[in-house]
Structures are given as structure tokens and as C-alpha cells.
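Data availability excerpt. The first of two example chains:
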Amino acid sequence: MKAPIRTPLSHIRNFSIVAHIDHGKSTLADRLIQMTGALGEREMKEQILDSMDIERERGITIKAQTVRLEYNHTDGEHYVLNLIDTPGHVDFAYEVNRSLAACEGSLLVVDAAQGVEAQTLANVYHAIEVNHEIVPVLNKIDLPAAEPERVRQQIEDVIGIDASQAVQISAKSGLGIEDVLKAIVERLPAPKGEENAPLKALLVDSWYDLYLGVVVLIRVIDGRIRKGQKIRMMQAGAAYELDRVGVFTPKLLEVGELGPGEIGFFTASIKEVADTNVGDTITDDRKPTANPLPGFRPAQPVVFCGLFPVDASDFEDLRAAMGKLRLNDASFSFEMETSAALGFGFRCGFLGLLHLEIIQERLSREFDLELITTAPSVVYDVVMTSGETIQLHNPADLPDPVKIEEIREPWIKATILTPDEYLGAILKLCQERRGVQTNLSYVGQRAMVEYDLPLNEVVFDFYDRLKSISKGYASFDYQIDDYRTGDLVKMSILVNAEPVDALSMLVHRSQAEHRGRGMCEKLKDLIPQHLFVIPIQAAIGGRVIARETVRAMRKDVTAKCYGGDATRKRKLLEKQKEGKKKMRQFGKVEIPQEAFIKALKME
């Protein structure tokens, strides 16, 4: 382990890459790594920083990844570039915020054919909020449909930053990558920091490694951090001695110490996930810094749903798996719950439906668990006639309606930015979801609508619908406002006269019938045929409000009947009929797992 030559602050650049989904962030990161010689030709592969299988398959970045690059500028000087590749999807905006806090500048990647899109805006505004210097990069200029001049103008009009010196590149073919490296060195600011001040470092991320324990990613602000040093986490109040300090190149490389402005990692035999709070300030145990860093707003779970193991004996494995995922994903929360139909499981909080899907897929892939997912919902306040208020996480646990005084639901203040031509359709969508418009103004060419919306109307598929009606241009942001009384009823779904716990939900009375009908129609297509007829019903209390029927699979019992009297055939058919009747009484309906998720995405 050799201690690297200390790099002066003026020769360090910390930057992240921000862009809309699919505009080429990860490919640009690949080219930068290749160009600076961080990995040899044999070690290079596509999406080198996307380490999860899911990320590669779906072509999306979920976890922000970091890499340290060494670059020799044409003026003969040697520079250290710390790059953080960030996700583009709104569900993972929390990852983006943390990454941006560790940098001084951003490369804003815009597709030269598609132009500025919703998440481009959302992510670049995050970067502007933390005072980043922004270098616009026009990617995919080798496409026949590319219009660099139009997109450059669009960046200036919509975002309001100077794009006259935008770097034109093709990340796929490697065209213009040298210009990007020059722009990083010449146009992005160097970090500031005091080498002789007490240690102050920001905890950017942490994840679990089977061999090293908890690996903590940090950005050093002041002072130096070295192996063997005793550090303290100011928020958690825990002290540790460091086992190793290092950087990612993107391979793990141990170094003697890290100084101001540098991004690296340490391990310290940390066993407990809870001890590494993202956004915590790390300082020297003996000579602490006086004032901690402001940290981050904790991520707010928006969607809650129950996860239950198909096999009850997997419960402890599920608990352990969730603990490990929680370690690698600070925005995922869970608590234990029980259900009459499904046994022991967990009530989990997610940032959105994509986040829910990814977590579910990771649990089944990485930990080999089979899971049942219940309907996503939000937390309600139920005021009983006795005067006590209980919090309801799961609609299946709703007390007897006779004992309920009122049900209060959470409302949010939503801000939607959209180009003018989609405004009508978006207002209609918000009206359908019981929204109350509070404001409408214009920001340049774009309309900014503010709405009060009930959260349970938003968690299902509001975001997907918003994206589809605005062709991906609308951006949506919200914060929880307060709880308001609503006329809510519990809608149960009965399959073959048996209530399905996982699909019961609280809905507004005015929308119960529409929701129930939609759910039954979807389930009719999703539940496979059995040998008997299956009725699917939506009910409020004892009143059925919608019904669909899955027809029976037909077995030809008369196939072997050659000739003879017609009564022979009739006899066989009567016998079959009796058998089906009996089966319907005792027949168990198998509902495939994907039917649950698909049924909940309402049209």
C-alpha cells in the first residue's frame, strides 16, 4: 500500500453527471474511465459503474457510483477527477441529492435529438440549488435526428444557463471526450477546504460488503482522515477506529489518507446499519469539529405495502434480507406486521412504484425469496367513536365501520411544471383525482400548476399517467401537507367468494364503483382458468358493486364416446357438471404473483 502523492486542492475536481433517463450518463462515464486509462481494454465493459444485474438489464442507474480518475492535461499538469454517476428516474432523486452535495460542479448531459426533458430539469435544478457550476454536454450528435443548435437554444430558454460553449460529443463512439475532460478541468471550480482544521467529512453513502462489512463513502471537507485514526459520527454518536481508507478507481484501492476535497471510502468493522446515517458528519474523536454539516432531508416514503413470504418458514430470511437492503438503500423503511390470510410479514415504505418493483426484484433475485405483495397504500388516521385515534397502515385492518367516527387521509401540496399544450389534460387528471387547484402561473414557456391532492390518489399510478399524457415533459414535485377528513370506504375483492387480503383498499365513496369495476376486469384477465367457474367481486361491506367471471376450462369428457345412444353422452356431461359443482365449493384458486402488481396499476 503506497501513499499517493498529495494532490494540491487546485488540481482536484469533483463532479457528477446529471441527465434525464437514457440520455447517456453511464455511457459517458464509461468513456471517461477508458480515456483516462483507469481500466485496461480487457477490463472495460458496458455500463461499468452499474454494478447490479437489474441496472444492466433495465438500462437504468439505481445506485449512484463513484470513481477517481487521473488526468494529464495538455498544459502538462496532473489532475485528480472524482466522478459520481447518478440515477435519472424520479424515484431515485434522493440518490441524486446526496451525490450533488459531495461535488462542486455537474456535467449536464442532454440528448441532441430529444432535447431537454422533465428529469433533466428536475436534476439540473437540484444542482443549481447546491450552487454547482454547470457544463452543458450535447450527446448523440452523430445521430441523423440530432439538432445541436436547437437543443442548445432550448437549454438557454428553458433552464436559463449559457449553452454557447456546450461540448458536443458522442459517448458511444468516443467523439469529443477529450473536450469534456478539458472542460471539467478548465470550467469547473476546485474544492475549498482547510488541511490543518479538525477533520470534517460528509457521509455520502454506505453499503454492505460481505468481506469488509459496512463500506462508508465520504467527501472530506476539512482536515485529513487516515488509517488507524479514531473517528466519531456526530449524529449517531458512535466512535470507530478505521481499518482501511481508500478510493475507487473503479477498483478498490487502499491509500494511506484522504485530504480536503477528496472523495473516498473507509471501513471500520461497523456491524450495525443504523450507525451510518447518510448525511452525518464524521470528525476526529479527540479533536472534533465545532459545527456539523447540515446533512440531507431524510427520504420520505410515499408508498406503503406489505411484503409477505410465500413460505412462512422464510420469515427470518426475509427479515435479514431487508436489513441488508436497508443498508444499501437508506430510503427504504420497514416494520413487522401480521395478516390473517398471509401470516407474518413486513409493512414497507418506498419512494414510488418503480422503487417498490426494484426492491421486490432484488429480494427475489439476490436472496432467493418468493414474496406476496399487497396493495400499495398510505397511512390513515382513524378517529373512533370512543375518541381514540389509531393509525391505519393496512386497509385490511380497518375496524368495524360502526365504531368509526371519521377517517382522515393525508393530502399533499403538488407542484407540476408542464409545457402549455399539455395543461388541459393535466388539469383534467388532477380533477379526476379529487385535486383542488390552488395556483397557476407561468415560468417562461412553461405553466406551473399547484394542486392540493389526496396522497392515496397519487401513489398508484399518478406519476405514470402524468408522464404519458405530457409525453414525458411534465415534472412533478410534492410535499406532505396535512390530514383531512374524507368519505372513505373499504373495498374488498372476493375471488370465488373468498376475500383477498392483499387487494383490499380504502377508496373514496364516489370512486369505489369505478375502481372496483376496473380491478375486477383486470383480475379476470390475470387469473388463469381453472376447471370451474370463478366469480370475481368487488364489495363494500355486504354490498357487491362489481362482478366479473372467469370461465371454466373445458375438458372434453365425451371424446372417447364412439356411437351408441345420446344418453351416454348426456350421462358423462351430467357427471362432469356434478364434479364441477363440488369443485367450486372446495376448489382453491391460484392467483399468480404478478397479478397482484398488475391489478393495482389502474388505467
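And the second chain:
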Amino acid sequence: MRWSRVAVLLIALHAASAAAIEPFVIRDIRVEGIQRTEAGTVFGYLPVKVGDTMTEQKAAQAIRALFATGFFQDVTIERDGNILVVSLRERPSIAQIDFVGTRELKNEQLMAGMRQIGLAEGRIFDRGVLERAEQELKRLYLSQGYYAIKVDTTVTPLERNRVSLNFNVEEGQIAKIRQIKIIGAKSFSEKDLLKQFVLTTPGMMTWYTKNDQYSRQKLSADLETLRSYYLDRGYAEFVVDSTQVSITPDKQDIFITINVTEGPKYTVADVKVAGQLLIPEAEVRKLIKVNPGDVFSRARLTESSKLITDRLSNDGYAFANVNAVPELNRQKQQVGFTFLIDPGRRVYVRRVNISGNTRTRDEVIRREMRQLEGAWYSAEKISLSRQRIDKLGYFQQVNVETPAVQGANDQVDLDVAVVEKPTGRLLFGAGFGSSEGLVLSGSVAQENIFGSGRHVNIGVNTSKINTTYALGYTNPYSTVDGVSRGFDIYYRKLDAADNSLGRYKTTTAGGVVRLGVPLTEFDSIRYGLGYDDTKIELFDNSPLIYKDYVETFGSNPNNVFINVNWQRDRRDSLIYPTEGAFHQASGEVGLPVADLEYYKLSYRYQRYFPLTQAFTVMLNGEIGYGDGYGSAPLPFFKNFYTGGVSSVRGFKAYTIGPKDSNGDPRGGSRKLVGNVEFLFPFPGLGNDRSVRLSAFVDAGMVDDKWDTQFLRYSVGLAGLWVSPFGPLKISAAVPFRSDPLDREEPFQFTFGGVF
């Protein structure tokens, strides 16, 4: 006898079954109609079990419970004697999902969006989920600017109670921004204001940047940029009143209208300091970048608060709070500020924790730390510690966090997490330079041998001009104070004649012992004492100046020399610098205990100026001077040379300067090089630091006297790619103010490192 059959609609209306029945005790439960669902799953959802008394109320509860699982599209409960019979019709499962007509978005991206809302192959088919899937598909396309998107879904039944879903997509044409209008702007031209925006109308590069496609996130960022533009120029009450985004009926063109109220232009009336002053007020005021009479600028106000906060954090006040409270005088169009300083509690670092270093020893990292355990917190020392660890070159990433110690309000831990990169190299490869030709190289190097921070390298390098075999070793911390010691042994052959740089060859074998002493956190000085033996080979057509030198001083001079190198490095990065300066002064002297008596002095200055987060200007200058002493001249094979991809681009390497009797460059005792370079990332690669482009102006000269008439210039474009196989440098330059004897080379490149 059938007890009840309760449909989903009747359940929703809380209806009772059609017929009243007499309660009975369940002796058994039988489940019918299931194919994929286990009987145990059904028993688990039923609110009754064998031995219970079945009633109409419990029957309704059972039906509601089974429908709520989402597994079934029909549920019937019947009675067969004292047996409870549950008849089920399962929902079909999704066997296959296909997308047709999707060109802009990849199937992987679409499937990921479907999975987020519960639609995937193998899951139970639900019409409600299918409708959400269509909306999600449209949302994905709308976010890409495809406002004419149409989606038609087909559900095809398959055997074994399965279905196939087919999403037929008509993407349509992408909508483009045709106009951006700013209403209410009076103090600045609309053209100047729109230059601050990322969003723009179609242009030459928008096919690549896609900035002519509307994005709510980009518009929000542009509105904040617009607000900052006004606030930094005195308009303290500037507001964006409203923004309208309209689209044409064919959903192809978008028009954006921004309504603004500029308000009056304010100047700074007064600047006060209040709160708990733990440092002298005079020092605080030096950190404030807004002064009475200045035009109001939110940027300088924010910078002032940050400088004060950073200064307090260097004394241990890690959680200092500085707020600039404004006082507007609308009649006089002036604004005064009171910097309220709340230093909070003084904090010290309880423990320095290091993680991620599976090969590098803890001591190698800890000896670079300038923030010590048990010392007062210092943001400056923490930042310096991170920079020093990063400059080791052993890690891909260095992350520093300062979590508060649980249960203590005056302690933090310093967590240093590193991601190691391979520091050993076994390399057999080749490179090619437009000047040096084919470069064959092989090297075995370990910059962090046994995780100790010591460097060992053995290398071979061959090129059209140079052949080098070298062995080197360096211990950067031979003492706890950071004194480094090392040595180099080398064998070099220079074939200048093979590249038309002079009719001579030299073969040099020697070695150097080195000692480095740190002077400050950024300054170091290095000393070297070396000996080498040089063999000079001349030809019948070698210039007279070379023959005279060999006749006077011999063809096999030996050399005992000392060199001194002072270096100050304040750059923020070695690979991708954006700010800071680099100084290097060096000198080399051939001692009179051997055959060569000479000295060479050089100085290099490099400075990076960040214009924005993406754009940087680099200035570089080099000067060199050399001569002999006693009765000896500067050896001709010790001359300075310039020209090429690393100095004055657009001229063949080493060729700028005076020529010998054969018309070959002979170098000189004086060198001057200058570079101005505008650096910027490769468009579309975002923060990828492996690729960088630049526009440059180069100048340089080599001669035996200082005279600007010998300067050579070039302008051009360049690129640097730090590839997995070595750095690739490319430049395209236009030389000017050149001499007819100069050797121009507009396109230059080098690939691979030189040992």
C-alpha cells in the first residue's frame, strides 16, 4: 500500500500527504532506482531507521532531506507491508563540458571559473548551477571589455543518466573607450589631466597595452591619481562628484564622464608639533617637508609623517603613529597642520629567526645582520640587513617580517625567510660578441662552497682577441670583522693583430694575492700584490713606437705591481638598480724591483635617479690617467682603450682614440667616458627584472692629452636581458662627431658572460 507521494512543490508549500495513514513499525528499508549513489548514502540522509515508527510527518521529513542533497530529481516513499520502500530518480551527472567560439579566453581559464561555482565534469547536473555558469561566463568576458557577449547553452542527454554541456559563445567585438570627459576642471587643462590616466582612447600602442578597454579597477585607480594630482597642488577640498560610464546600443563604444569640484587653492598657514616628543623638536621640524607659505601638498605631508615615523622607529619605537591634523581657514584659503606624535612603547628584538637556507649556513646570513637580538628595534638597521643579505647573491628572495611576540607588548621577533638559488656552476658554452667574435668558455665555480660563503672558480675563456685561463679563491670573512682574503692565478693571451687593434701579441702569466678591508657599511678598500711575466711578439709591419719600446725595454718584461681599490656602493640593487650611487677609485703601480715602472689611476662614478617606480635615469662617468716614472714610459700594452657596447656604443670596441702608423688604434694614457641613460621596463612585462630597455647618450675619448676635440658621441637604444644562459646586451646607436678613421659599428651585442 502506498503511503504518500510528496512532490517538491508540495514540500515547499508545507503540504501534508494526500492520504492519512496508520503509523507502523519499520522492519526493513528498501531503496530502488539508484545507479551511482550508494545505498548507505541514502540511509545516512534518511531521518528514520529500522525499528522506528513511520508517520506521515516523518515521511515528509524524509522526502525533504533527500531532495536537499541535490542528488535526486524525484523522490517517492511507499509501504510494502512493514517494509519502507524509497524510490529515487537520480539527477544526471555531467560527462562533458565544451566551449565553442571562445578565442579571447583560454579553456583552462573558463573551466577554472566554472569550478568555482560548482560546475565541473563528474558533478551532479543542476539547472540552477547552469544558470550561474552562464552568468559567470558573461562576467569573465565583460571584465575583458566584451560587452556584446552572447551565450547559448545546450544540454544533451547521454546514456547511463549523463549529460553533455555545450556553451556556444558569440564574443562579438571588444568595446573601446571613445571619450573620457572631465567636467568641472578649470585650473588645469583636460589634456594635462588625462595624461595622468592609465585608461585612454585608442592609440598607437593600445593594441598591446589594452588601456583603451574599460576596467572598473583601472578607472578607480585613475580617479585616485586625479585626486592626488589636485591634492598635491593645493586643492585640499577637491572631490570627484560622480562618474558616468555609458555604452552605445551596439555595445562597441564606451564614454566616460567624470564630474569634479576643484575647490579653492590652499597655502600652508602654520605648522605645529604636538604630542610626546622623544627627539628634539628642531630635529622633528627638519623632517617636515611643508612650511608656512608653501602651496598645500598631500604628498609632502605624507612624506613628512613617514620621515618622523622612520626616525622614531630607528630608536626602537616600531609602532609610532604620526598624524597631521589639518585646520582649514576657508576665508583666507589657508590650512594649518599640527603633527601629533604618539611614539607608543619602545620595542626591542627578542630573537632573529632564519628559515629557508638548506645549504647556506646560518652564520653566513647572521654575519650580515645589523639588527641584533636583544637590541632596540631599528627600521634602518633591519633594511640594511636585508640589503646586505640580498647582495650576497645566494638567494632569489629575501623576506623580512617583524611579528609581535605573543603576550608581550614591547617585543618583536625578526623572521628572515630566504629562497636559495643555485650558487654552483658547471658551464661549457659559447657566446658571441659583435666585436670579439665567437667566445668559447668553460668554468667550474662555486660562490658559496659548502655553504660557507667562500668563492672558488676555475675558468677558461677564448675569443677572437683574448684567451684566458684562471683560478681564483676568495674568503669574504677571513676575520669576524669582514676582512677578505683571496688569490688569482692566470694565463692570458692577447692577439691585438687578429682584430686590427695593433700589430702585436702578448702572452702573460702571473698571479695576485688580495686583501679586502671594510671601512663602513658601504665602503671598502682592497689591496693586491701581484707578479706577472709578459712576452711581446711583434711583426715586420709593427709600428716603430712598438719596436722602439721592445728594443729599449726588451720583449719579455716582468712586473711586480700593487693595486689599491676603494669602493663605495649605495645602490639599492646590483642587478636592477633604481637609485643610489656607486664610486670606485683604483690605482696600480709597477714597482721598480722589476722591469716595468708605471702607474695607472682611474675613477668611476655612477648615479641612479628614480623618476617613477618604472623609470630611472642613470649617469655614469669614468676617468683614467697613466704614465711611466723614472726613465720609463707607460708600456704600450698598458694603455687605456674605449669604444664598444660597454663604453661608447656605436663605435667598434677599443677603437676610439689615436691611431698608429698602420691606422690601427693604439690607445692612450688618458681616458674619459660619460653616459646618460634613461632606463625603463619592457612594455607589458610589469615588474619582470630580467629585461630592461634604455635610451642613451654616450661620449668618450682616449688620447695622450686632454682635449675635447677628441671626444666621440653617440645616441641610441639598448636592451639587457638576464637570460638563463647568460646576459644578453643589445644596442643600436648612431655615432656622431666621428673622425674618418673611426670604426663605426651601429649595431652591437654581447651574449654570455666573460670569465
